[in-house]
Amino acid sequence: MSLSPTVTSWPEPHSPEESDKLQTPEQDTQQASSGDVPSTHREDTQPGLGTLRRAFSRARWRALGQAPGEDAGLLRRSSHFLRSLRRPRDDGRAAAPGRARSPEGPSGVTDGGRRPSTTGVGPEEPGQEEGKSVADLITERQLLAAFEQLRQLETRLLAQKAAGTFEQDPTGFARRAMDVCLLYDGLAAEIRAIVRETLGPGGVDAAALAELARVVRAEEEAHPVTPADGDFLLTPRRWRRHWEDAVTRSAQERVRQAGAEDAAGAAEGASGLARLLAELGGSVRRDLRQVRLQVQPAYSAAGLPAWEAYLRAFHGAVAQRLQELARDARGCEQLYVLLDWTANVYGSPDFLGAPDLTLSTEPLPPLLAPSVWARLESDYTSFLETKITSCFDSILQLEQSRWVAAEAPDVLQGLYHTPLSIDIHMLVAEHVKAAGAISAELEATTLRICARALGLFLPRFEKAFLQSEAVSEPHLGASINACEELRTSLLARFPGTFEELEKPLVAAVCVFQKRLLQGLQYDVQPLFRVLCTKAWLTHDVLQPLMDKVVAFAHHLEHVAPLRAQETLQEAHRYVVREYLAQVLRPRERFRGVDRVTGSQKMGLDAQAIGNTFQGLGSEATWLGQAIPCVADILGETYKDDIGRHLETLIGSYPDIRRDHVMAILALRRLGRRRNQRLLQHAQSLLRAAAKAEGSGAAGGRVLFEEIQVPTSVDLLITCIKCSGSRRGRASVERIQAETQGHLPECVWAWRQEIRSSCVFL
């Protein structure tokens, strides 16, 4: 006979958390039947079934919240209470006062479906050990024995239901089934207690874990699927899921306890957070090693995947803890500590400290959600950009302090040295290496931040240095070396990222080289003024100039070789250019013997200049023909050979212009036709040189282009052009009248010569 709808619709047993919130209709029915309504199945002096149910309920509900000792005490007291209710054997004796039916058969139903007598006499529980109830077995953690007894009670109760025993008392089946469920819940609570104690200070009880695993497997075999008729007694208890939940809660408690003392310090700075994470990592490492070496073998016999369950549980607990720490992380250091611990400590293959124990993260979700990880990286890079900019500010302040202290740069490995390049190298390498240890994307971002900050730093450094009072050859050489080191090493170490900095670094080097040459020019410029004078013909006025060049080149020995060679060649070009500028704008007019003597003097000076710079290591050999060619034109006695000298000059220096040729020819006393012929020949040579220059054959060599023909020569050339006619002579007189107070003496000395000769066109 089927039970009433109230009984047959009994819900599936809930998890312990859900059971705390639910009160089923059958419980209300049982309370009413056992506590409020008198029953003929028990004596009024005996404790009611409701009292029994509530005793087990308290033990069951508190199992999760109490310590293991408290769970055992509750179950032990329950077992004593159950023994006080156990009936005597069915041998015809009356039950003693205060004794009632056992919890395994609270409604007094006996085998065979016979109704119990009012005296409460019934049979002993089948399969029960002498003197021990299910509660006693649970308390003593004889889980398998307790489960077997519960299965017997369950089987007997179902058989009685099938035999129609409860046709007259439908609620009796519900009461007895509820008692069985309470005992099942007590057994589940003990399972959770064992799991909670597993990683505690008491150590691992391998026997208890093995029995726990067998009980879980036995329950799964006993209740494989939910019955079609909805009978809640045969519904799967899902102890494997309860066991996994208990493992999860145990891992959460262990992770929460780890680093609890350092939790306050974690909010103060990166060091406190690092200590907390170190304690957390050590605790998780110890627990997982214990699981792998002691817990897993105990479970493996029954086939429970303890390692996978604990690994997932600890992984989830650590992830939850890191999520909380990530919300409170502030500053670049704290963010990096979190990222580094996640990627390099927890994510390390040797996190467990043994080659045969690996923390495989492949089947596990990311420790931090992708969105959280992206936010941490974004916050970190924002703080990092500010920090790197601040570091460059500090580097500039250190350099300025050295300038103020007038500290001479050190000579390291033969080169002027400043800590600037080392400081920048260390700054970039440190942050890039740290970012690369976390992820390739963060490394690339950090490289871009460093490159951008260095690009902004270079013009600031250049401006501050040139405005300081420390500008000298040694400091300029040290700055050139620093920029050159940065250019070569950074581009070689980080190709692709720092290529955009090559131009700013080269530009800075050029600025420092130019300033270095300006110092030389300032020193030697007055010495050029004595060239092409009467004193110059009889005295060695070039030697003081060469001495200053040699002293300047001494500093270049401590500059990077490539940049030193560039600077030396530029100094060589400057000396030759300024010498020619003085020749093309002479302060005095040489005639006859003086002109020949001046030509010879120019040849000697050219040889001295060439030998000096060659001895210093200059590779600008192309400059050696300029002064000798002009000297040959000036001193050539066979006038037909002047054209050959012009060919050599224009062929060697294609940047020469018509005005320069006219100024050179003006140094000689040549007739109109010869000058016209030479100038026409020079024009054809200049056109050929221009074509060669356009095709790149000139090689970028510049000398005459930077020599400006003086105004006095321009006027002289104009006068010479116009002096061949009556109108030209009138123009000469007008120009002389207008510029009489401005032309140099050499022009007035040439006035008579202009009138008496007609040259050029």
Describe the protein in words:
The structure is a single chain. The chain has 761 residues and is mostly helical. It contains 31 helices and 2 strands. It has helices at residues 5-8, 16-19, 25-36, 49-61, 68-85, 134-139, 143-162, 170-198, 206-222, 239-257, 263-266, 270-300, 306-328, 331-346, 370-404, 420-436, 440-467, 473-493, 502-524, 534-538, 543-556, 561-584, 592-616, 626-635, 642-652, 658-665, 672-694, 711-722, 726-738, 745-749, 751-756, and strands at 410-412, 415-417. β1 (410-412) and β2 (415-417) form a beta hairpin.
Calculate Rg over CA atoms.
53 Å
Tell me how many strands there are: 2
Morphology = rod-shaped
Task: Name the beta content range.
Answer: under 5%
Uncertain residue ranges: 1-129, 721-725, 739-761
Keywords:
761 residues; two-stranded antiparallel ribbon; rod-shaped; disordered N terminus; EXOC3/Sec6_C; mainly alpha
Task: Lay out the secondary structure.
Elements: H1 5-8, H2 16-19, H3 25-36, H4 49-61, H5 68-85, H6 134-139, H7 143-162, H8 170-198, H9 206-222, H10 239-257, H11 263-266, H12 270-300, H13 306-328, H14 331-346, H15 370-404, E1 410-412, E2 415-417, H16 420-436, H17 440-467, H18 473-493, H19 502-524, H20 534-538, H21 543-556, H22 561-584, H23 592-616, H24 626-635, H25 642-652, H26 658-665, H27 672-694, H28 711-722, H29 726-738, H30 745-749, H31 751-756
Antiparallel strand pairs: 1-2
Helix pairs in contact: 3-8, 4-5, 4-8, 5-8, 7-8, 7-9, 8-10, 9-12, 10-13, 12-13, 12-14, 14-15, 15-16, 15-17, 16-17, 16-18, 17-19, 18-19, 19-22, 22-23, 23-24, 24-25, 25-27, 26-27, 28-29
